[in-house]
């Protein structure tokens, strides 16, 4: 397994962010990671990357805690926050800087720029990029180490319809190459067409972990599956079923 999360617990003061989060991400599949606002998706990803420490439980990447990996970007590429870049650097220089700081070969920079459709704008300052372009740049950074596993937090955000169609195909192609792809999203329509597998979470724990085709067959659509499975796990809602 590429990523194995086992019994994660995490509190922020009196807020329980993770309450026994447990799942695994498999190679060759796009795994959607979905749940209401505050369900614990970003916290889980931060714990996997060692950016937050869990109070209990383990998160392993290729059987190892991420922070103990000697060349982490060769194991797991991640995109957590598309805004996290130095605005005065060009996209190409941003990637070159990242590659060098991580001990990676800079020759891959032009490759990932091409893969993410950024070649023609690679010499523009990243500070002038739209959110959709920043998402592509974050994706390029995630792929720098040619990792077998990719983890993306809401990569569809800010993408225009062309970008969404492109990203759907791109995530599928990464999985077809044998990579494990974990992608969080609130866009069920996108995931129905993109993900093979779905981990549905609420209030810091897994509510369902199964194949998208099974969930769709059982609930008529992924959106319906999501609404049914997360009933009762939403903190703020105008939905009638959670009153
Ligand atoms: N640094 C922090 N300090 C305090 N509380 C936090 C912190 N990070 C997360 N939380 C809380 O932990 C819970 C889980 O948040 P998290 O961001 O992981 O959820 P999420 O599923 O990613 O939500 P969203 O879909 O809105 O991005 C929420 O109640 C959130 O307010």
Automatic annotation (TrEMBL):
<keyword id="KW-0067">ATP-binding</keyword>
<protein>
    <submittedName>
        <fullName>ABC-2 type transport system ATP-binding protein</fullName>
    </submittedName>
</protein>
<dbReference type="InterPro" id="IPR003593">
    <property type="entry name" value="AAA+_ATPase"/>
</dbReference>
<dbReference type="Pfam" id="PF00005">
    <property type="entry name" value="ABC_tran"/>
</dbReference>
<keyword id="KW-0547">Nucleotide-binding</keyword>
<comment type="similarity">
    <text>Belongs to the ABC transporter superfamily.</text>
</comment>
<dbReference type="InterPro" id="IPR003439">
    <property type="entry name" value="ABC_transporter-like_ATP-bd"/>
</dbReference>
<feature type="domain" description="ABC transporter">
    <location>
        <begin position="3"/>
        <end position="228"/>
    </location>
</feature>
<dbReference type="InterPro" id="IPR027417">
    <property type="entry name" value="P-loop_NTPase"/>
</dbReference>
<dbReference type="GO" id="GO:0005524">
    <property type="term" value="F:ATP binding"/>
</dbReference>
<dbReference type="GO" id="GO:0016887">
    <property type="term" value="F:ATP hydrolysis activity"/>
</dbReference>
<dbReference type="InterPro" id="IPR017871">
    <property type="entry name" value="ABC_transporter-like_CS"/>
</dbReference>
<keyword id="KW-0813">Transport</keyword>
């Amino acid at each position: 397994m590429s990523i194995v999360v086992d019994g994660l617990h995490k509190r922020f003061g009196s807020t329980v962010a993770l309450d026994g989060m447990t799942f695994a991400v498999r190679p060759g599949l796009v795994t959607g990671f979905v749940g209401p606002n505050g369900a614990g998706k970003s916290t889980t990803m931060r714990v996997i990357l060692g950016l937050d420490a869990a109070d209990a439980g383990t998160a392993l990447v290729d059987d190892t805690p991420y922070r103990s990996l000697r060349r982490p970007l060769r194991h797991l590429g991640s995109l957590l926050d598309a805004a996290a870049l130095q605005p005065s650097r060009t996209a190409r220089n941003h990637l070159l800087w990242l590659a060098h700081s991580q001990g990676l070969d800079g020759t891959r920079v032009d490759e990932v720029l091409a893969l993410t459709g950024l070649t023609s704008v690679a010499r523009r300052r990243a500070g002038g990029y739209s959110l959709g372009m920043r998402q592509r740049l974050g994706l390029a950074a995630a792929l720098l180490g040619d990792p077998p596993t990719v983890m993306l937090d809401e990569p569809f955000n800010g993408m225009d319809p062309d970008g969404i169609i492109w990203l759907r195909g791109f995530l599928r192609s990464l999985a077809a190459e044998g990579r494990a792809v974990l992608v969080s999203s609130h866009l069920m329509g996108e995931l129905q067409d993109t993900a093979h597998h779905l981990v549905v979470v609420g209030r810091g724990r897994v509510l369902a972990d199964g194949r998208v085709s099974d969930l769709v067959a059982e609930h008529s659509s992924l959106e319906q599956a999501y609404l049914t499975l997360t009933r009762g796990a939403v903190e703020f809602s105008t939905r009638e079923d959670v009153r």
